[in-house]
Design brief:
single chain, mainly beta, CD59, 6 strands, 10% helix, globular, LY6_UPA_recep-like, signal, Prostate and testis expressed protein 1
């Protein structure tokens, strides 16, 4: 594995703001959210699966848990592929101003983002 690219990964992740939430392992994360129903009656709060670092064929190794997407955020899955299409890395979380993009060039890799807000944990199956 190319160490310089792996060291640059945190910079890529920070640029896309996927590293929101806690780095603590939270299998059964519980949070309470209070919403005042004035002008926000159509507000939909959703929870997203979070994993900052997962290699193919392995379980989440860093940042496993659940994040709560704000009104400006969506659940996202980011995947990094080698140029030949071989999966190299996956990350999930809540992302502000999320957009579906495919094959962003990043050195010798291609990065794809998929976003959803349809239901809780919708990014698990993207």
């Amino acid at each position: 594995m190319d160490k310089s690219l792996l060291l640059g990964l945190p910079i890529l992740l920070c640029c896309f703001r996927v590293l929101s939430g806690s780095l603590l392992l939270k299998d059964n994360a519980v949070s309470e959210i209070i919403v005042q129903e004035d002008d926000y009656s159509d507000l939909q709060i959703i929870q997203c699966r979070m994993c900052h670092l997962q290699f193919p064929g392995e379980k989440c190794s860093r940042g496993r848990g659940i994040c709560t997407a704000t009104t400006e955020e969506a659940c996202t899955v980011g995947r990094v592929f080698k140029r030949d299409g071989t999966p190299w890395l996956t990350f999930m979380g809540c992302l502000k101003n999320c957009a579906n993009v495919k094959n962003i060039k990043w050195s010798v890799y291609l990065v794809t983002f998929k976003c959803c807000r349809g239901y809780d944990l919708c990014n698990e199956k993207l």
